[in-house]
Amino acid sequence: MFLGFFASDKIDNKPVPIDLNKFLGKWYEIARFDHSFERDMQRVTAEYKLQPDGRIQVINSGYKDGKFKETIGKAKTTDTSGLLRVSFFMNFYSDYRVLMIDKDYQYVLVGGNSPKYLWILSRTPQISNDTLQKIIGVAKEKGYDTERLIFVEQ
Predict the structure, then answer these.
(1) Cβ(103)–Cβ(88) under 8 Å?
(2) What residues are paired with 94 via a beta bridge?
(3) Which of the chain's termini has less CB crowding within 10 Å, N or C?
(4) 20-151 belongs to which CATH class?
(5) Distance (Å, whole) CA 66 – CA 88
(6) Residue-wise pLDDT tens digits, 37-50
(7) Average pLDDT, stretch 72-92?
(8) Which candidate, 27, 62, 30, places its Cα nearest to that of 47?
(9) End-to-end Cα spacing for the chain
(10) Checking phi first, is residue 129 left (phi over 0); if not, alpha (psi -120 to 50) or beta?
(11) Are the C-beta atoms of 48 and 148 separated by less than 8 Å?
């Protein structure tokens, strides 16, 4: 996912530790905040693949107006577990912060540097309403305006 660039002290966007090997793989976008680079996209997925140089290939894909769209980027780890630096344009990197993750790595809440960016991702195209409400509750506790969430058609 593309990310914000301006820090804010109004949200708790401290990343939680992750096991990178468990995090890698395909994720389905369940919900997100609206932003221009994903506007009107449906059936969105993000796939993270470890490369031989230690970086991570990021493949974001989905459909807009019935047409398949794909963007390939790269990510690198940082000294802080749960904080990746992601780039989809040259060497301009942005924060990708894992804000909460299921113990079995089945769903995740991700944010950027600012309260403008938030995603709910799952290993499956749909999640239960109970699980969704739990994740939304965590986002609210962290200071995000969850009324802004757009639910993605999978």
Answers:
(1) no
(2) 86
(3) C
(4) mainly beta
(5) 23
(6) 899 999 999 999 99
(7) 87
(8) 27
(9) 16
(10) alpha
(11) no
